[in-house]
Amino acid sequence: MDLTDGIFWAARSPHQLGRFIAFDSRFVERPLPERTIAEDPFLTSGEYQRQVAAQASLEAGWAALKKGQAARALERAQQAEKDNPGFYRNAWLRAESLLALGRRPEAGAACAVALAGQPALGNERARIKKLRQQTIRNP
What we know:
Elements: E1 7-11, E2 20-24, E3 27-31, H1 41-44, H2 47-66, H3 70-83, H4 88-100, H5 104-116, H6 122-136
Antiparallel strand pairs: 1-2, 2-3
Helix pairs in contact: 2-3, 2-4, 3-4, 4-5, 4-6, 5-6
């Protein structure tokens, strides 16, 4: 809101990435098209759609892994990496899948990539480090 000029903006979806439509605060039903702010370039460039697809791939991958479908989970991790390259959770899912497939050295390398991606949460870092330890144990 800009209280000095009496304008407020309402964001269009998704996630406040859409256009911000300006309104006169005294007459809320009156939009001010000349003061409207364009949507975020992240939305219009296709990046947002790729990120949504990557998230769906990760969710499907974790679900497949829970069902014991490690090869399917690995495919989903690889698709997530194509859609959202460099995200640590892609490498994490890849590591979990590779370990389930018995491919310890590759799983260890994927753990290193996941950790290099600087996981956001401490418990995630701890889980990835624990996973990495499992990749170096004797079979």
